[in-house]
Amino acid sequence: MNDKRKTAAKEGSSAATSSSSNMHILFADDESALQELMRKELPRMGYRVTVCPDGITALETLKRERIDCLLVDLHMPGLTGIEVIEQAREIRPEIEAIIMTANPSTETAIDAIKCGTFDYLTKPTRLADIATLLGRVSERREGKRLFTALMHRLKRAEGNNDLIGDHSSMEDVRKLIGRVAPTDSTVLIRGETGCGKELVARAIHDQSLRADKPFVAVNCGALPEALIESELFGHTKGAFTGADATRIGLFEVANGGTLFLDEIGELPLAVQAKLLRVLETGDIRRLGDNESLHVDVRIVGATHRDLEQMSSEQTFREDLKFRINTFELRIPPLRERIDDLPPLAVHLLRRHRRDGVDDQLFTPEAITELQNHQWPGNVRELANVIEHASVLCDALPIGVEHLPAHFAKQKLRDDLVGTAPMSLKELEQLAIDRSMKRHNGNKKAVAIELGVSLKTLYNRLNVTSETEAA
Q1: Is there a smaller number of Cβ atoms within 10 Å at the N or the C end of the chain?
Q2: Does domain 3-148 have CATH number 3.40.50.2300?
């Protein structure tokens, strides 16, 4: 290589290295001189490279190694460059490809476009042109990655995803998140259903060094057992009935970022064994594939189940329990931090409404009713209650009358505790009187609250009227 070519290669190398992100390139060409040149020069540009002498060897390499970009000659022994690219996309649909040819033509360009080629180069090719083109490929891959991460963030619920509440237990959770987030440690989040485990997982991701990479969440308990393995690890075309195309799994989607396995205790034992292998080696294998792929994924798991008891019952692998429990976070239920309910309620209401942001959002009576509730469904139940109230409330503030009917029933039960002994008819009449007063005589609303038909309510009211008249 003469001095001019060396200078051009050096300039192209410095431009590419800044954005290469250690991209792995497969170079395939039957010219030995070009093979040797690429084996030396591509690493100088900042790329990893695997060199192959023909299309068949290239395809075999693709099945063994994780390749990001193909740089292939159009005419090679065994398989053409276009055939290699087409079959490569069966294995890795997201792979980028560049074709080199000594005989460029319109037909060549059309064929290259049809098989999804990023671009093509004419031989003899300058190293500076290769470096520039690979730099563009790397920038495109980075753009796709950032777009994926952005889309995951946009799919989050509206509003601030900060952990709401000043209770000491939540302060402890925040401190622990701050300690573990910058590491790559596997985290297990424990807590009752609906207490905000995914929100904590997102906080860990957002405060980690992977914050600009994808955060992928999957509810293991919501997936049919027959599809869990395919969903997590992907599958090749024809791996099973209905597998009409190769599909990448969530581990590959989350590569470089965080995979949140919610309800990890629901995983079947066979999938638990494969998950353990991924945690130990970082290698995954698609269904129907004989070769492994390496992924860089941080695992955050969550469960409301007692994994220790499950281990003793041999429904959850003990070795996996130890592996995922490198760092444990326990999320307190809402009833244990009930003082946090008012700011939580305001936060959730502002997701649904923009009116009255600076005005009173809840009446004191409504807040009292909310704080007296036991919240078996935790924050998720509170979110549903607030959404229900928001729909019923035409103008803020939200009052007791906007809360679901079971709150009124609970209040009635609480009011009756400690009263003097009463007959069943007296209790029934007391319930009707209080509900009528609460709804300003609206009989339809009273019937809905008491869980009876309107006809039944009229019958009870008529009996009462007749009794009073007598």
Answers
A1: C
A2: yes
The alpha carbon dihedral of 286, 292, 293, 294 has a sign of positive
Residue type for 264, please?
I
Cα separation values, 15 from 37, 38, 196, 404, Å: 19, 17, 45, 62
Query: Is-same-fold flag (3-148; 335-469)?
Result: no
195 — pLDDT class (breaks 50, 70, 90): very high
* pLDDT (0 to 100) of residue 246: 82
Task: Classify 70 as helix, strand or coil.
Answer: strand
The full length of the chain comes to 470
Beta bridge partners of 190: 303, 330
Asked: is 168-330 a CATH 3.40.190.10 domain? The reply is no
Q: Which two tokens stand for residue 343?
A: 């700011």
Residues facing 328 on adjacent strands: 188
Mean pLDDT on 320-342: 94
- Which pTM was predicted? 0.61
* pLDDT tens-place string over residues 398-412: 988 888 877 755 555
Residue-wise pLDDT tens digits, 215-239: 999 999 888 888 899 999 999 888 8
Domain ranges for the chain: 3-148, 168-330, 335-469
Residues 127/8, Cβ–Cβ less than 8 Å: yes
CATH architecture of 335-469: Orthogonal Bundle (1.10)
Helix (H, G, I), strand (E, B) or coil at 93: coil
Q: Quote the CA–CA distance of 355 and 326 in Å, as a whole number.
A: 45
Which one, of 214, 281, 280, 221, lies nearest residue 249 by Cα? 214
* Distance from C-alpha of 384 to C-alpha of 406, rounded to nearest angstrom: 13
Side by side, the strands of the sheet bearing 119-122 are: 48-52, 24-28, 69-73, 96-101, 119-122
Q: What confidence score (pLDDT) does residue 204 get?
A: 96
pLDDT tens-digit profile of 382-403?
999 999 999 988 888 998 888 8
Measured CA to CA, the distance from residue 9 to residue 40 in angstroms comes to 11
pLDDT of residue 296: 94
